[in-house]
Amino acid sequence: MKPVIFLILNLIFIVPCLGQQSITSAIERQFNNIERHILTSAEAMPEEKFNFTPESLDIKNSDFKGVRTFAGQIMHLATDNILIWSPITGASVRSDIDDVNGPKYIKTKKEIIEYLKSSFEIGHKAISTLTTQNAMDMIDFRGRQLPKLDLAFYALTHANEHYGQMAIYLRMCGIIPPPTINEK
User: Fold this and answer.
1) Domain span holding position 142
2) Residue 16's CB: how many other CB atoms inside 10 A?
3) Residue 113: in which H helix or E strand, if any?
């Protein structure tokens, strides 16, 4: 009986007080986790393997022709972070972004990781602006009108998909992804 009373008290007194904090906290919690996984994985790949692509392994019956390099995965992820999170804040996008693969002059591991970190900063800023009152506000994104919350979910999902690809690339290079090591 006590768990039922506790649940009822939570529903009556605590849940209504969550409001803005709940949506921001929930998204931020997920974003922090994804950011940590991606950054530790990016840092784990040695610079000399940053341009690794599975195409170089010549795996029989595989088709990796033209896939992004490890660095290309990160550049695309960072660029899409910028392109997805910026509309939530209403901020303009960097002028050096011509496509979803990012600025061509960013090439070294250090530069790429700095670019990635800056894209996560934009995400944190965007998340901090979300409230229960504005989460369903419609904004223009790639020719469509979408709620801000949809873009936040899309950004989280997209980042997680690329983390999965990064983890596979690391393993193909004989490197255990750091988040996997920490979870054991």
Assistant:
1) 69-184
2) 8
3) helix 109-129
DSSP category for residue 99: S
Token pair for residue 114?
């700095």
CATH code of the domain in which 152 resides: 1.20.120.450
Residues 6+ apart with CB under 8 A from 105: 96
Beta bridge partners of 146: 139
Q: Is residue 168's pLDDT more than 90?
A: yes
pLDDT at 11: 42
Residue-wise pLDDT for 11-27, tens only, equals: 444 445 545 457 889 99
**What pTM did the predictor assign?**
0.84
Measure the CA–CA gap between 133 and 130, rounded to whole angstroms: 8
Distance of CA 65 to the CA centre of its chain: 25
* Strand pairing report for 138-141 and 144-147: antiparallel
Per-residue pLDDT tens over the stretch 86-121 = 999 999 998 999 999 999 999 999 999 999 999 999
Output the CA–CA distances (angstroms, integers) from residue 133 to 38, 90, 129, 156, in the order listed: 31, 16, 11, 21
The reply to whether 151 falls in a domain is yes
In the three-class reduction of DSSP (H, G, I as helix; E, B as strand; rest coil), residue 139 is classed as strand
| 11 within some domain | no
The total number of residues written for the chain in this structure? 184
